[in-house]
Amino acid sequence: MAQSKACSPTCRSFKCAKNSAFFRRDTVWCRWTEEMCNVANCTYSMCIKRRLLPRGICGETVKRKTVEKDLEDEFFGESVKLKGKALRKLGDKDFY
């Protein structure tokens, strides 16, 4: 299984909500905290594609887990008994 990657401030989809991130030499610096930008601990970091997960994990690198369900059991589980107006309108039938 592939591991998920942490989001970095050099990503094209990364955006600082305070507009305080800027490039200083080869790193991204935060004017707000006066230190290197840390996506995992910053409350103002966000992704333009809305893929930023908690703890600074990039959502585009995470694989989804799908579970197959048998839909026939859900649809044909129990019959519905009607009473009152609904019974008079539709007749004496069981609906599945």
Question: Can I get a quick summary?
Answer:
The chain is an alpha+beta fold and 96 residues long. It is 11% helix and 21% strand.
Protein model, in words:
This protein is an alpha+beta fold. It has a domain at about 1-60. The protein is about 10% helix and about 20% strand. It is built from two helices and seven strands; from the N terminus they run βββββββαα. A three-stranded antiparallel beta sheet has the order 2-3-4, with no helix packed on it. The relative contact order is 0.17.
Q: What key attributes describe this structure?
A:
96 residues, elongated, 7 strands, two-stranded antiparallel sheet, three-stranded antiparallel beta sheet
Instruction: Tell me the Rg in angstroms.
Output: 26 Å
Spatial separation of the terminal alpha carbons:
42 Å
Report the mean per-residue pLDDT as an integer.
78
Helix segment tally: 2
Give the overall shape: elongated
Oligomer: single chain
Helix content: 10-25%
Widest beta sheet: strand line-up: 2-3-4
Q: What is the topology?
A:
Elements: E1 14-16, E2 21-24, E3 27-30, E4 35-36, E5 45-47, E6 52-53, E7 57-58, H1 71-75, H2 85-90
Antiparallel strand pairs: 1-5, 2-3, 3-4, 6-7
